[in-house]
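for ur thesis appendix - DUF5009 domain-containing protein. copy paste whatever u need, i formatted it the way the template wanted (i think)
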Amino acid sequence: MQETKPVRTRLLSLDVFRGITVLTMILVNNPGSWGKIYAPLKHAAWHGCTPTDLVFPFFLFIVGVSIAYALSGAKLTHEKHTQTIVRIIRRGLTLFALGMFLSLFPKFEFDTVRIPGVLQRIGIVFIVAGIIFLKTERRTQIMTIAVILIGYWAVMMFAPVPGIGLANLQPTTNLAAWLDYKLLAGHLWKSTKVWDPEGILSTIPAVATALTGVLVGQWLKKKDDAGNKIAWLMVWGVICTCLGLIWDLHFPINKSLWTSSYVLYTSGLAMLGLGLCYWLIDVKGYQKFTTPFLVYGINAITVFFLSGLIPRIMGMIKVQTASGEVDSKTYLYETFYTPHLDPYNASLAWALTWIGFWMIILWIMYRKNIIIKV
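the 3d part is after this line
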């Protein structure tokens, strides 16, 4: 990782949209108690989509938009593609390694470490989407998205599951779960043990999510009237959202399976969200409200990584109380939050405290013009 100065040509609305997404990610990942969470801050139990289920696909969509902005110059310089691909792979593997470190820390039990994960998926998707953008044109990218979504639908809905029987979308017996267990048994999410929400097969349609962002990034970079760009972005946002809802009737919207309907639905909403930010911030110039989100957006991976690491460190620090020894997180939560608020509000207040804590750190970094690039 390195320290550098902010790039002044960054699309401000994209950084703000990324900041809103990462801030929300920290909010939903850090409740005071996992058993006391308001419904919108939970993932859907299986089929369906809550506001929390929008966070990860929004981030991958933003990764795609960023690829179009960051690599457009290199795309035009054909003789340097090999060097660019090496940088793409290096960055993707770094993200994967950071995710593995979080999975291993603090016990470093390699025999049972969870291999899939959020950062791991981001790294893989970044590599694949980055290379596709670099080596193909927009028409091929559209066709790639279509092939992925239709192919994934066909495989999940019609391919028999070995040792089980007919294709199905049940949590433990679908084809994606079978493949996860077949290849990664003992290295899956501890809450399920036999399948993983960031598993192998479901990472393929996640690439399609990033590629929708790649298309949007290329559209926003066009030398065209801003109003026309926003209008078409909103139109396609509505079209994709509606197509996702229609496809949901046959191939249910499901984050854990990253179904094709989920890709269209969430990508459509991401287009609408980014389009609104672009209109307000870059076109209309309403920027006074942006700084709290901007500080999260320009150091997104840094804050996501540290927000996962610090709670693990807190779990290692023990505090002696009258009722016995507890970790420091539990001590702080039960001392300053649960005695004064009802369980759900105490849990929410703890998450909001983390948002405020990281905002102070990120604001200082922002004022000092520090961006940590992975």
